[in-house]
Write a structure and sequence with these properties.
Elements: E1 9-12, E2 14-16, E3 19-23, E4 29-32, E5 39-42, H1 48-61, H2 71-74, H3 76-85, H4 115-126, H5 134-143, H6 148-162, H7 174-179, H8 189-192, H9 207-211
Antiparallel strand pairs: 1-5, 2-3, 3-4
Length: 223
């Protein structure tokens, strides 16, 4: 949860095909016309300035370019905010007792700090990152690219780009569209005869769309 009892919001204005993409707490999205320029989304972990700094850093790690959209358009910061506010953020699923000894790379992170604590320390390193010029942002990230925080932020940025939209990222399934991933399909049996001998690239569908009902993400049910 945010350190301050005051409720924090992130103002979003993500331009996508067909208008603005609106984020809501239940992960539903709606397209609005261009005259709607902003929407305030309640944050669960970050303060607004923290969310802006993380969003800007994620956008430098995975920027939009000629090949497609990036972290901003996918709503990566919303994904990270939800994950850090969940049981994962406080290391509920990781063994966290001493001794804390460096392991081999294949063992992954072996330290004491939780993801929340890693981000709190990382935010101090970033400072007012979103106010810096792009070249200054890149230089700041270069200074910290060997830290645990940068490694975790990079991992979360990729996850937020390509997760199921119910987790807050991959808004409009733009990440899946970019790489041609059709979603969590269990079978192509019904498509074999229909598309036999022809190129077949189905439109991406989220788990909720495939099931035909809302799906509650794990981070919303964890305690």
């Amino acid at each position: 949860m945010p350190r301050s009892p005051r409720r924090h919001f992130l103002t979003l204005s993500a331009t996508t095909l067909g208008g603005l993409l609106v984020y809501t707490l239940d992960r539903k999205s709606a397209r609005l016309h261009a005259q709607t320029s902003a929407l305030k989304v309640p944050l669960r972990f970050f303060t607004e300035d923290e969310a802006l700094a993380i969003a800007a850093a994620a956008a430098r790690i995975f920027p939009a370019d000629e090949s497609g959209p990036g972290a901003d358009e996918a709503g990566v910061v919303i994904y990270i905010d939800r994950q850090l506010a969940s049981a994962y953020g406080r290391d509920h699923y990781r063994y966290t007792q001493p001794p804390f000894e460096p392991g081999v790379p294949e063992q992954g992170y072996q330290g004491k700090e939780t993801p929340r604590e890693i981000y709190r320390a990382g935010l101090k390193m970033l400072g007012p990152f979103h106010t810096l010029a792009p070249a200054e942002q890149d230089a700041r990230l270069k200074q910290i690219d060997t830290t645990v925080f940068f490694s975790l932020l990079r991992t979360h940025t990729i996850e937020g780009m390509f997760c199921d939209p119910m987790h807050g990222g991959n808004a409009g399934m733009i990440g899946w569209q970019m790489i041609g991933f059709p979603g969590p399909r269990m079978s192509y049996f019904d498509d074999v005869d229909q598309h036999y001998g022809a190129a077949f690239r189905p439109k991406p569908e989220s788990l909720a769309q495939m099931l035909g009902r809302p799906v509650t993400p794990g981070e919303d049910t964890e305690t």
